[in-house]
Amino acid sequence: MRLRPKLIVAFFLHSTLVCVLLAVFLCHFVNERRSADFRARLGGITHLGAKLIDRGAFDELRAKISKDLDGADARAVERSRAYRKLSEQLNAIRNAEPELVRFVYIVAPTEDPDHPRYVADADALSPDSNDVDASSFNKQSPVAAVPGLKRALLDCEMVVETEYVRDPIFNVDSISAYVPLGGSKGNCAGILGVDVIDGDMQAVLAATRTLAIRASLVVMGLALIISVALGATLTRPILTLSAMARRLAGKDFTVRTAITSQDEIGQLGLHVNAMADTLKQHSENLEQLVRQRMSELYAKTPTAERLLLNVVPAATGEQDGEVVIDRYDKVSVLFADFIGFNRLSLRATPGTLLTVQHQLFGIFDRMAEKHRLEKVRTIGGAYIVVAGVPQPTDDHALAVARMALEMLTEVRKFANSQEPRLNIRIGIHTGPVVAGVVGTKRFIYDLWGDTVNVASRVESRGFPGHIHVTEAVFECLRDVYRFESCKPLEIKGKRPMPTYRLSPDPLVQTPGDSWPPMRQSIVKP
Description:
Helix content is 48%, strand content 21%. It is of the alpha+beta class.
């Protein structure tokens, strides 16, 4: 997929997600707010409606309530003037919110507190209620399933239900408000009840939700239009630069892009134009430059260069005939000396001796290259490497320690096949040195300084099969490896120097740590 469709899809999906979340939030918020508003309005309507009720008519009808009243007598009461007045007033209360209010009625308590009786109902005189059985006057209203009505009758106080209640008579879920029509706690005269059924309220809430969803769809449509516009605006300069890059790849170095903004895209255009200028300049001189470089290349001897790199590091050379000598403040020097090498030289033939030395030193050379160390030189059975020269590095001590541990492992493997067996002693010190090339014929890359001398002394005072290090190395690696304290090293002109024996068990497993445990000497004494 190309960049512009990706941006359009990304913007549109992001906007759609925001719109969906907004629509869900709005629907939930509107439902909560409208429900709370409906309950408040329901309570207000009921409270005001109670003030409209004709108390004289109410008292007249309440006096006629009797458990012995039959249906015909109840229907006759409903045709009385008092009942018609109350019915008109109840319908007026319902007509105040015709979409919200479904039932309006008056009940009065009786000797049985769980079975009050209806006094008046807004629907009793409706045209489709001519049947005698349709009469509501004097009918019992079981309040066991309507806790709000029961509480209003007992406490004679206003009650507005907060949750839907199942009406056992009409078999619907409703929220009701109840307001007393006089009396006191325990002696309530009657209750005006106003019901809102679940279906009517959900219809009103559904209309609100539909409005919210339509608004979200409109916003999503606008988001799509904006996404397309943004995608086109943002990708136009990128597509222009892409077309320019294709022309540059086709060696058309005269193409340039117009800079229309000062943002990152504009800065990129400036850099691309500058690159085109440079490419044009180099293109004009390319053939001459190639001929010149090819002549220089043929004049050089590749073999000599490779030999030179095997003698001195690549970063070392000569300037105006003088040798470059550099000081390095933080390096680690490793001295390693074979134990038993002289005895082997007395017993083995020169060819065998050189083969052993070549094999071991070849292994060490590959280790040094692996850990990016610089081999200094070999003297007999001694091998010297340094880390941090000629390229400074922060992990010089860690690199030397890794190589030292690998050297012990390789010598242990090799020693089992030799008689007398070889062993190795290693010393490491960290500090400053001076490094450079010595001589003009058969020159070597060498190190000077107190750090080199201390590393040599640490190695000579060490134990076969172990790595002897100074306090400077200990401070660099104390959080990586375990150390064992050794006898301080006595050096002439210096105070006793604390030394340590490096344990092969790391405190922290670092990349490249793969050696086996070596708590004992690598060969038998």
